[in-house]
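Hello again,

I reread your note about wanting to compare the complex against the isolated chains. To keep things tidy I'm splitting this into two emails, and this first one only covers the full assembly. Below are the input lines as submitted, including protein chains and any nucleic acid or small-molecule components. They are followed by the predicted structure of everything together. The single-chain runs will come separately.
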Amino acid sequence: MKRPGSGWTALVALALAAACGDAGGGRPTDEVPAVSGLPDKVTFADVAPIFRANCVECHRQGGAGPFPLVGYTEVLRKAKTVRKMVVGRWMPPWPADTAYSRFLGERVLSPRQIALIARWVDLGAPAGDTSALRPVSPEDLRAKSGGQAYLGEPDAVVWMPDTFHIPGDNRDRFMIAKAPFVLPGDTFLRGIEFVPGNRRAVHHMNGAMVSYAEGAKQDVFSGSAYVDADSTKSLDAYADLHLQNDDGTWPVLTPNLVNYLPGLSPPIYPPGLGGYRIARHGAFLVNTLHYGPAMTDTTDRSHFNLWFSPEPPRRPVKELFLGTLGSSPVEPPLLIPPDTVMTFRTNLRVPGDISVLTINPHLHLLGKSFLAYALTPSLDTIRLVRIRDWDFRWQYAYTFPTPLHVPGGSTIHVEAVLDNTRNNPNQPYDPPRTVRAPQGRHMRTTDEMLQFFVNYVDYRPGDEEISLEP
Ligand code: HEC
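Full-complex prediction:
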């Protein structure tokens, strides 16, 4: 058997296992922003539009949020928690500091909106005249969720071949799975979106694309659909899924093609930027699919929405991968003794003049804060992202409104603080233990990592003028 190529090795190493945890408390802010000119009387009719525009996308029947916040009684029932979450800037979830850098699709409330909700709750959350409230529209639900809102109905849908049965045993499950497909011909992919069948159950998903050369595999549908990642080595799992070509060699793999986290919008760029060639015979390799603990038996069958492009990708989107398992070492090496808070850094020189499109910071449970910026040869600072209160549940890919020019010779600097004390609400151990970067190729939930992904195209003059709004 041929050894898997480098893409596969990296993927095995990446088999990512973020954990599930409780909502972390203890965010310092609990002050209502001081805003002048608020009305004395605030009713649900005044605040409902804020919930429509910023919450119901997740907080609706079947959404990613734990309960709906659509109707008056639904919000009333949760009014106190809503106030706390909104004033503490926990909800809507948007970890990036908007005072540092700005991105597309920001989920943030203005100080006035926060103060209005706080006053409404303080006044006893009165209903007021709700007769003029328009019903929730599909636009509200899709508001910032990417995919269909931008591109219309998908050109093709690829389903997981089977339903997955999740036992109600209150355990996390990490599965490796495949969704095979046969298309009418080779074509080009403009956008792809993973849609969980059961949003309550699916916690996250990291997907790659497997492309078979014409004639290399007779039956892409053979093999298992789901393999338990915890009890199977990745390479054995890939064999169980029958991912190899018929002659035992490994097909071409495009890692990190599509990811899902609650609230993550897939970056879909305007025509001409990005895109992939997609083979007639292939599969989406789901590596891994994390199901959170369920108290009762339930099921999931997820799918992928695809949007094709008539044109080949003209300006391929490339990736810089800093940190753990990537192209730049973490300094000091990632090892944190118990009861300590430590700062780790990694930096990488950019390969030439680049236009940065999307960035994705990644830490696990012990993350406390994250900072990334580029330093030009003339020592100008180009701000990338600052996250003051790391929350491992919201690991967004952040897309800039327009491509961000980073001149050749610049260096990207990343700095992350990790908190391995009891004060960290996501601390998985009591008492805390020594935590380090993954040693073997199979990552454990509680391994730590510091990673930073930068999607870019080679710079061309005028890139600054391109709107990245899909
Ligand atoms: C991107 C999806 C998303 C958006 C947008 C969103 N939420 Fe949430 N919300 C969630 C999820 C998921 C949870 C459960 C988090 C957990 O418990 O780990 C949650 C939890 C909550 C909770 C319960 C917290 C607790 O600890 O009990 C409240 C209250 C809440 N959200 C209010 C809001 C409000 C108000 C808005 C809009 C201003 C909003 N959310 C926007 C996804 C979202």
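For quick reference: The longest strand covers residues 202-212.

B.
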